[in-house]
Amino acid sequence: MSDIYNDIEPNVIDDEMVQKAIEEQFPEDIGKIAKREGINFKDVTELQLSFRNILQIDNLWQFENLTKLQLDNNIIEKIEALESLVHLVWLDLSFNNIEVIEGLDTLVKLQDLSLSNNRISKIEHMDALQELQIFSIGKNNLTTLEDVIYLRRFKKLRTLNLTGNPLCNDEHYTLFVVAYLPDLVYLDFRLVSDTTSHISQPARAGNMKFSGQHFFLIIAPTRGIRKRTLFFFSFSFFFSHSD
């Protein structure tokens, strides 16, 4: 969450800000030429607007060919005004003051999304992001493991970061995530195979007992030793290792 800039006047995204940002992205000599001759925003594919105390996203409609956008470390409260950026592949909105995931419906090419260090309490409104491969939403206010179930719709998701959310304190957090997202390669900056190795062996040996209504656990190796598919039926998943 970005509170460190609250004593500074909030900024809006205007032509002057983006012009300066683009010039700074180029090597010094090229930047001078760009400043002298001007820049066609339609030719820009990457834009970095980090650490500029931006309160509101606006005036980005001219960047219709943008593929990478950095808006991290600002004071943005709402995801908006991105609908024209249909070619975005990479979007960083980390370290802001965002409370709700929204405004992403047209970003159907997005592969990498970072929403870490915000104030988000629910994973939602992301159905259009079917190309998503990397999703970082650590250090937010996610409290329920049901948010993990929502992520099952992203068949290409391979890297997920949830660290720093209250839901991570659940003793069965890791096993639950791997069960519902069996194609993950990295979870919370670690290989899934390393993260679950100490869990899967006792489970396979039959040393787990279960309680709760209509709860079953089935473990079946798939695609080699690394991946296992765990199917949970019901949201009651209270269980522990037996002695």
Tell me what you see in this structure.
- By secondary structure, this protein is an alpha/beta fold.
- The protein has a domain at 11-169: Leucine-rich repeat, LRR (right-handed beta-alpha superhelix) (Alpha-Beta Horseshoe), CATH 3.80.10.10.
- 19% of the residues lie in helices and 19% in strands.
- It has 5 helices and 14 strands.
- The chain has helices at 15-25, 28-37, 146-150, 173-180, 192-204, and strands at residues 11-12, 46-48, 54-56, 68-70, 90-92, 112-114, 134-136, 159-161, 186-187, 190-191, 208-211, 216-221, 228-233, 238-241.
- The strands form 4 sheets. Strands 2-4-5-6-7-8-9-10 form an 8-stranded mixed sheet. Strands 1-3 form a two-stranded parallel ribbon.
- A hairpin with a 6-residue loop joins strand 12 (216-221) and strand 13.
- Helix 1 runs antiparallel to helix 2 (28-37).
- Mean pLDDT is 82; it is low at 200-243.
Concise description?
The protein has 243 residues and is of the alpha/beta class.
- Low-confidence segments, given as residue ranges, are 200-243
Structural class computed from helices and strand pairing: alpha/beta
Output the number of helix runs: 5
Query: Total number of β-strand segments?
Result: 14
Nearest-integer average pLDDT: 82
Output the CATH topology of the domain at 11-169: Leucine-rich repeat, LRR (right-handed beta-alpha superhelix)
Secondary structure layout:
Blueprint: E1 11-12, H1 15-25, H2 28-37, E2 46-48, E3 54-56, E4 68-70, E5 90-92, E6 112-114, E7 134-136, H3 146-150, E8 159-161, H4 173-180, E9 186-187, E10 190-191, H5 192-204, E11 208-211, E12 216-221, E13 228-233, E14 238-241
Parallel strand pairs: 1-3, 2-4, 4-5, 5-6, 6-7, 7-8, 8-9
Antiparallel strand pairs: 9-10, 11-14, 12-13
Helix pairs in contact: 1-2
